[in-house]
Each structure stands twice: as C-alpha cells, then as structure tokens.
Amino acid sequence: MHLHDTRRRAVVSLEPLEPGHVGIYTCGPTVYAPQTLGNMRSQFTPDVLRRTLLADGLDVTFVTNITDVGHLVSDGDEGDDKIEAAAARTGSTAEEIAAHWTEQWATDRRRLGMLEPDHLPKATDYLPQQIEMVAMLEAKGHTYRIDDGVYFDVSTFPGYADFAGLDLTEMEASGRVDNIADKRHPADFALWKSSPEGSTRLQEWDSPWGVGFPGWHIECSAMSTDLLGVQFDIHTGGVDHIRVHHTNEVAQTECALGVHPWVPIWMHTEFLNLGAVKISKSKGHVLVVDTLVEEGIAPLAFRYFLFQAHYRAQQTFSLDLVRAADTALRRLVGHAVAARDAVGGEVVAPSGGRAAELRAAFWAAMHDDLNTPKAMSVVSTVARDPELTPAERWALLADADQVLAFGLSEATDPSAGGDVTDDPVVARRLADRQAAKEARDFATADAIRDELAADGIEITDTPDGPRARRR
RNA sequence: GGCGGCGUGGCCGAGUGGCUUAGGCAAGGGACUGCAAAUCCCUGUACCCGGGUUCGAUUCCCGGCGCCGCCUCCA
User: What is the DSSP letter of A244?
Assistant: First the structure.
C-alpha cells in the first residue's frame, strides 16, 4: 500500500509500526451543526482506506472522535465556544446539542456505507488525559501562563514550522493572528483556557490551572494516543487542518511524549467544491445527506460519486453530477445482480486470465494512494466485459464490494423498483390497461399509463409483463 | 500580498514523453416495444495560450491568461 504523506509531501510505502496491524485516527466533527456533504468526504477517505486494508487481511483499529467542546467561533484563541453558542441560541444544554448532532452524523455515516468506528471517543470524556498532557508539557518547559490560560510556546519546538511549511518570521512580522495580547508569538496556541473572571460557562472543569476548558487541539492528541498508543500509523483529516490544527497536534504531542515523527503518514482530503450550490452554514441551509434524499437521490449514489474523483483533488459538486452517479450506480447494481443471480450467489475464486488481470488492476489502483477513479473504471469494465463468465463477473464485483460497500450481495434488480400492485386501485388500473392493450386499444392503454404517471407511478413493459414502480 | 494546487473531449474525471481511443453521465445510432420508458449493444469529439527542451510533448522547462484552496472557525 502506497499513500501520500503530507509531512513528507510524497507518496510513501505504508510500513505498519506493528506488523499486521494498522492504527488510523481521523479528526471527527464538532457537533454543533449538521455535517455537510463536504464534511462527509473527509470521513469517506479513511473509510475507503480502512476497507482496503481490511481486504488486504490487515487488522485495523479505526478511531475518530466527537468534539463536543472547545472549538471557538471567532479567530485565534478568543471568542465563544460554538457549542455554547448553539445551546444559547436554541435554549438547549450543551449535552443536548452535542447528542443530537452526534446521532445525525452517525446516521449519515451509515447511510453512506461507512463502517462503524472501532472507537468513537468524546472530548468531554477525556478531560483527565488532556490535563495530563498539558501538565507533561508544562513540566518539560514548553508552556507559559497568562491570564487567558496556558499556552504552548512554539519557540521551544524547533521543528514547529516543518509540518506545514510555515514561515514563522513572516508570521511574526505581519502582525496579529489573533487578539490575545499576552502571547509571545502569534503561533503560540492555547492548551488550557481559563474561564472568564466572574462568569460561568456551560462546560468547564477544574484543573491545576484553575477552572476552564481544554484548548482546541489537545483533545486529538490525548484521545488518539490513549486509544492507539503513543505512536500509530495514519492520521487523516481535511486539508484545512494542515496549517493550524495538525501543526499544533504534532508540536504538542511530539514535545509531550518525546517522539518524532509521531505519526508516519498524514493523509488529507481535499475540498468538495460546492460552487454555485454552496449555501451558507450560518443561514441554516446546508447540503447534507438529507438534501439528497429530498431530491430523490440514494445516499449511496453520493458514495459512488465520491469514488469518481481522487481524494487529493478538489471535486466539483452539483446535484446533477450526483444524479449521474445515481444512474451509473443503478446500472452497476443491475449488472451485479444479474451475474449474482445467474450463479446462485456463489462466489468462486476468479480463475481465468482476464478475470485475474481485472482483479489485480482493481487492487493495484486502490493500493496506489487510493486511486478510486481508476479502480472504478476497472469496476465498470468488469460489469460488462464480454470475456467474463457470470461467475467471474460476480466474484470480481463481490470482491470489489468490500471497498465499494454498495451492498451488492443483498441488492435487488434496480429496474424492478418497488411493488405497488398491493394498492388495489393501482392494481385495477394496471389490469384495465393490460386488457386494453390486449384488445389493441392503445389509446386507452396510454391514457391509463399517463394517468398513473401523474400519480407518480411509472409503468414499464417488460418481456415478463408490465412492471409498475413508484418514482 | 505570501504559500500551495489546478486548467483533459457537452459535463465530471483518471492517466502518460511516442498504441490507455481510462471510466462515468450526457449525446448520436442500433436492438427490443403497438408507441414509449427502462434495459442492452455500438459510436464520436480532448489535452488553456505562447515560447523552449526533444527525433517526438497533452505529459518536462519558462512566460502569460484563467480558476481554486490556505494564510481567520471550517472537512
């Protein structure tokens, strides 16, 4: 398996720290609002990675977190907590807000065919670990205290700028990154934030530095190392995390735990370019999985859509493009079901030269830094290559579905649609139309078809007789 | 302004110094159908502009134009 590592800016070979096992950590959502389709893309990448490694026979531990405290709405290290703001806005508690959006996110993950995480830690459950890590940093002289809280002193970590290729001197010269007056360097960041004098936050905890709440980077360091070990194989997230969040995670973790490099491979998923359909989050109208459902698009069509572009390239989004993916997925499932049913669902090892060649091509693409577009081109070939027997076709598609997760083993013929003949009125109209057709009274037959179409029921004549499905 | 990336056929979107006509959707043709729809089969068009390197560049270098991201919470 070859993967792109952001730190080294190169595609490198995955060498598990512990043979046969791979630990993966992905920065999860801050649960104060729905996760957009763009957010879901950055969860999609590690799911594909994980499924590929599992198919390779590796033991994978996948951890992603729930950030239910600590991120701030404004720039730098000041401003209000997003979750507190959402709670204030809706008159709920912070816990209610977090629980609601956590559940929504988990539902969306499932609808997009993602495996459940092996661990799903919540930041609020890891206060002792976070405090401990801050204390370690303090003991090693990497921190200083100001009224606002405990800050990480980047000058104590010579490699601070390396991860993201930052220019610290310019950062210093070009002035403020935020408004925390007492910070020694603009890049210094909060490890522990003190609660404001005389006021009480919804979420605050006691600590060696007084009542407050953890800084916004320390949770990932604490949870990932607690669950995966001091070092683990792969850390993923969105590209927007490279500059600040991951740079700071690396700094505090390497300093606290004395390891370098802390994580060998950092993978970052590019943005989904929402372009014209971009809708402001603050207006409460966002593109989410439910938006697709409302448009009559299957969530798995979005998964198919994501497979069509490489995770390190920005991908153009539009509803029409996802509809195109929906069509492509439906046809793929049709081929898969036909092949599967032709061989009674039995999966045999692909034996023929052509089959072996295609299977190798699929996995080679996946192992080449998750080249899913290339892999999908192989899948499309497999779906209709005339040289393959149905048994070979089904074996290859079932094999690929370990990663695709389109549910090919359980899928039904998509052209069949849902059965609507249990509605007596519809059933009678269908019978009327059949009678008219047999009497060669096509005017009447077509009128009934149009009438049912107006009610959203689509009639399809097939060699086996008419089929009706609700659109 | 600084840093990074991109510009491929109608729309997406892989890829390569000289046979991948990648693949998907759309489009056109055909099969099927009473007609459709759905489905299946077949087919076409490409590498932003200008230089350069090279026997040869879509692929490498330089310049230009255009677009995007980050630099501020953000996947």
Answer: I
If we measure between CA atoms, which residue out of A201, A197, A178 comes closest to residue A189? Answer: A178
Give the nucleotide nearest to A27 (CA→C1'): B75
The answer to whether the beta carbon of residue A463 comes closer than 7 angstroms to any atom of strand B is yes
Asked if residues A379 and A404 have their Cβ atoms less than 8 Å apart, the reply is yes
Residues 93-152 of A with CB under 7 A from strand B: none
The closest alpha carbon to A66, from A29, A94, A95, belongs to: A29
Q: What is the mean pLDDT of each run of 10 residues along chain A (471 residues)?
A: 90 94 93 86 95 97 88 46 69 79 93 96 93 95 90 89 76 53 81 78 85 89 95 93 89 92 92 63 64 89 94 90 92 92 80 86 94 94 89 93 94 66 74 81 81 74 67 57
Q: Which helix (H) or strand (E) holds A59?
A: strand A59-64
> CA A31, CA A65: separation in Å to the nearest integer?
10
ipTM value: 0.91
Counting beta carbons within 10 angstroms of the beta carbon of residue A330, is it exposed (0 to 12), middle (13 to 18) or buried (19 or more)? middle
Cis peptide before A117 (omega within 30 of 0): no
CA A365 to C1' B45, whole Å: 28
The 3-state DSSP class for residue A183 equals coil
Q: Kindly report which amino acid residue has its CA closest to the C1' atom of nucleotide B5.
A: A313
CA neighbor of A365 nearest in space, from A316, A314, A311 = A311
Separation of A280 CA and B63 C1' (Å): 39
Question: Which A residues between 30 and 89 have a beta carbon under 7 A from any strand B atom?
Answer: 30, 36, 38-39, 41-42, 71-76, 82
Torsion sign, CA atoms A405, A408, A412, A417: positive
Phi, psi of A298 (to 5 degrees): -70, 135
Which nucleotides of chain B have an atom under 7 angstroms from any protein CB? 2-4, 6, 11-15, 22-26, 32-42, 68-75
